[in-house]
Amino acid sequence: MNFETTAIKNQMPKTLYSEHSSPLFLTSSFVFEDLAEMEAAFTDQVDRNVYSRYSNPNVDELLHKVCNLEGTTSGIATASGMGAIFTAMAAHLKAGDHILASNALFGSTYKIFENIFSKWNITHTYVQPDHLADWEAKIQPNTKLIYIETPSNPLLTVIDMQALSELAKANHCLFMVDNCFATPYLQNPVKFGADLVIHSATKYMDGQGRVLGGLVLGDAQVIEPIQFFARHTGPSLSPFHAWILSKSLETLALRMERHCANALAIAVFLEQHPKIKRYFTHFYRLIHNTNWRKNK
Ligand SMILES: *Cc1c(COP(=O)(O)O)cnc(C)c1O
């Protein structure tokens, strides 16, 4: 299935009412026929919904859809993008670990490194993202995570994911990419070797300023500890917000096409304007490079 069809057709199974649009499951918990069924559910002998902090049909629909769009097999959804970043890192890191990160990051991500992880003896080093030799030079024996945003918010710094994924593999580090600005429509970081993909679904994914949401995507093996951490610490996405975001994704392709066309028109205007000396060359180059566009 192509991107648009995947974004529309990945829906939860119909209920006995044969609805056209997925219903909203606003429920904290799920009920059981008897004690045996409950026990089987609570001890993971059967795969079913138990409690909406763990899983919910609307959240599962969103996850299933985004996993298919990003090319991953597993994921978790959180109440915000920061919830996704913090949960993914907190699940995988421990005291004494070190993070190697691009210096072009979203503001609250710096706060996690500098004001929260520092209290727990998880240290970090920032790297000028386009200096590959610098990344290699700053790896430490305790580096466990290489973390980037590409293109970054707000300066649109673009980073070579393939090169960093090779560096991460050679040094047994996780490679985590915040793909919020490109969205899966324009870029799939797992194709370039990312172990974990982060999204703030609040931005282009919803695209209409209605809800916050976050996603962590990857293979089951890397997602499992994050799922455990999230289930028991509770950054869960509300079913209502998941329902909205799942609908939002149905129009993501159309909206991204228009965003790119608008950005190109502005870039061309600025480039020709006699009073403009400098503009964001990175993004301009990207939208001119048709290879960057997955489906075209
Ligand atoms: C907004 C944003 C976040 C944080 O997401 P929230 O949903 O606001 O918590 C993380 N990364 C990037 C690149 C963002 O733009």
Which characteristics define this entry?
binds pyridoxal-5'-phosphate, seven-stranded mixed β-sheet, Aspartate Aminotransferase, domain 2, 2 domains, 296 residues, alpha/beta, 12 helices
Describe this structure in words.
There is one protein chain. The chain is built from 12 helices and 7 strands. The protein folds into 2 domains: 3-20 and 27-251, Aspartate Aminotransferase, domain 2; 252-288. It has helices at 3-9, 35-42, 57-70, 81-92, 107-116, 132-138, 161-170, 183-186, 220-233, 239-249, 252-272, 281-288, and strands at 74-78, 98-102, 123-127, 143-149, 174-178, 196-200, 214-218. With 296 residues, the protein is α/β, with parallel strands linked by helices. A 7-stranded mixed beta sheet has the order 1-7-6-5-4-2-3, with helices on both faces. The chain starts with a helix and ends in an 8-residue tail after the last helix. It is 43% helix and 12% strand. Strand 5 (174-178), helix 8 (183-186) and strand 6 form a beta-alpha-beta unit. The longest helix has 21 residues, at 252-272. Helix 1 (3-9) runs antiparallel to helix 3 (57-70), helix 3 (57-70) runs parallel beside helix 10 (239-249) and helix 4 packs across helix 9. Pyridoxal-5'-phosphate (PLP) binds at residues 80-82, 106, 149, 153, 178, 180-181, 200, 202-203, 212, 214.
